[in-house]
Amino acid sequence: MEKKTGAQPKQSTRLVCQNKKAFHDYEIMETFEAGMVLVGTEVKSLREGRANLKDSYAKVKKGEVFLYGLHISPYTHAFYDNHDPERVRKLLLHNYEIKRILGKTQEKGFALIPLKIYFSGGRAKVEIALARGKKLYDKRESIKKKEERREIDRMRKQRKPN
C-alpha cells in the first residue's frame, strides 16, 4: 500500500463572469460544477472576460444538459470561422448528476440557472444551480435583512475604539 505524501497541487481558479441577479431572483437549493463544450474562439473570448450570463438558463434534453442564452462575444482577432455568440452549448456532467437534475427540474417551481463561469486548471467551467424562483415578498424580505446587517455592521464600526 502506497501513501501519497506532501501537499496536493492547488488548482487556480479565475472568474470570468457572474450572475449576481440570480441570487436576488432565485432561492439557490443546490449547485453543480459542469464543463462546457466550446470552440477555440469561444475559449479565447472567455479568457478576455467577454461573456454575459444575463437571461441564460439550462435544460435537460435527451439525457444531456444544454445551456441557452449565454452570450460569448465573438473573438476580435479571428478573421474567419468565428462562433455564433448565442449558440446552445452542451454541459458536461456525470450521469448521476444529470438524473438528479432531471428529477428536480420536473418538480414545479425549480429552474436550472448558471451562477458563474470560471477557469479551473485551464478548463472553462460553469457553476449551475437548482433554484426556486422567489416571490416579490421574499425579495423584499431579503433586501430588508441585508439592510439590517449593513446597519449593524455600521454601528459596530462606530463603537470600536482606536
Main beta-sheet annotation: 7 strands, antiparallel
Structural class: alpha+beta
Order of helices and strands: EHEHEEEEEHEEH
Count of spatially separate domains: 1
**What is the percent of helical residues?**
25-40%
Q: What's the total helix number?
A: 4
User: Into which percentage range does the β-strand content fall?
Assistant: 35-45%
CATH architecture: Beta Barrel
Q: What does this protein look like?
A:
- The structure is a single chain.
- The chain is α+β, with helices and mostly antiparallel strands.
- Helix content is 30%, strand content 35%.
- It has four helices and nine strands, in the order βαβαβββββαββα.
- A seven-stranded antiparallel beta sheet has the order 1-8-9-2-7-5-4. A two-stranded antiparallel sheet has the order 3-6.
- Strand 8 and strand 9 form a beta hairpin.
